[in-house]
Amino acid sequence: MTATTAAQFTSGRVINFAMTGFTIVVVPIFQSECAPPALRGMISATLQLQIGFGQLVASLVNYGTKGMDGDVSWLVPTGLQLVVPVIILGLLPMLPESPRWLMAKGRKGEALKSMMKLRKKDVPIELLQEEMELLAASNTNQGKGAWKEIFQGVNRRRTIIAITAMFFQQITGQAFVSQYAVIFYQRQKIPNPFGISVIQAVVGLVAIMFTSLVVDSFGRRTDDDQSRPILLTGGSFMALFLFTLGGVGTIHNPNTTQKNTMVASNILFGASYALSWAPISYTILGETATSRLKEKTNNLATSINVITTFVVSFTLPYLLNPPYAALGARVGFIYGSISAISVVVAWLLIPEMKGRSLEEVDKMFEKNIAVSQFRDYQSGGIGGVITREDNMGNGISGKGSVNVIDG
């Protein structure tokens, strides 16, 4: 807010974005370690829910300040961004630490206290103590691995899955809707572009809320009947609406109906994205890597996500506008093709991990279970028991898990 030059303002934006990057690394880890397996998808999706809410607030602020002149036109939107960080700083001391992290540090007593805060009040202390013993017996929290380990053995597969999720979250072109939609509408001479951006944000937020409620029932890639995949269906509709946008973009001097089709395609693409890759990527990020390498794996995957975001945001103006590529709406063909590729990649690489404890997921990767067999794999041992105990501690025993405990 004190910026007097573009360089100073840009520096502030870079620092702000860097802090956002740290958040994206840490929050999915914290959520996945604290959430019971049967609710991990819903809880992990709340990160994107907050992003969607922020986009809605930003759209409303921009809509309300669009008529302002002078420095106040950017000082007000920038200054309002201080409100949420202040609230978060005030609430942080109330957050319990991750029990798994505390166990990894040998702080068993603190881990039990943290677990008591995270679980239902009427859960017997004996059940929580048993879960603590199981976590202690698991090898997933012993020490920290080296960077080279994330590409060795079974960890290579897990790293590729995490990177894939975060890469396709951005390369599919969501920046076109979230960052350049207003400018695009203005160039197409579509009336009330700021109002449309508010509608887009509302639709996107509703879509994220829906996904957060159903992801632990439907799963990341398919539900129990393998008929309503989230990532696969969402990615398919993203491609469909982007191809529709691109097709209309080939029309010279589009009429009102054709312009409305562009707007509808943009909104529906944003909704499909918010239903699928936007929230599910964070869920996958939080549950894929083994605990001892999770920090490094997530750092790498998030770094690639940030780089991809920069590349897409940097190149979009050149793709959209003259005197460069001047593709306009035809950019939908590019990102529609990438969205179609994302469907194939998700089908081939990303397994269904819903309803399983992180320790159980560890064992399944160690056994190199195929993607197609992940959902119905019958697991036993410590990992399976932790899944049961973790869910029982929240009054949701058995929910979301298909594993059979055989000892």
UniProtKB/TrEMBL annotation:
The lineage of its organism: Eukaryota, Fungi, Dikarya, Ascomycota, Pezizomycotina. Keywords: Membrane, Transmembrane, Transmembrane helix. It comes from the Eukaryota. It is found in: Membrane. It holds the Pfam family Sugar_tr. PANTHER family: MAJOR FACILITATOR SUPERFAMILY (MFS) PROFILE DOMAIN-CONTAINING PROTEIN (PTHR48022:SF77), PLASTIDIC GLUCOSE TRANSPORTER 4 (PTHR48022). It comes from Tuber melanosporum (strain Mel28) (Perigord black truffle). Residues 1-354 form the Major facilitator superfamily (MFS) profile domain. This is (Perigord truffle) hypothetical protein. It is a multi-pass membrane protein. GO terms for molecular function: carbohydrate:proton symporter activity. GO terms for cellular component: membrane. Belongs to the major facilitator superfamily. Sugar transporter (TC 2.A.1.1) family. Its main location: membrane. The chain crosses the membrane at residues 12-30, 74-95, 194-218, 230-251, 263-285, 297-320, 332-350.
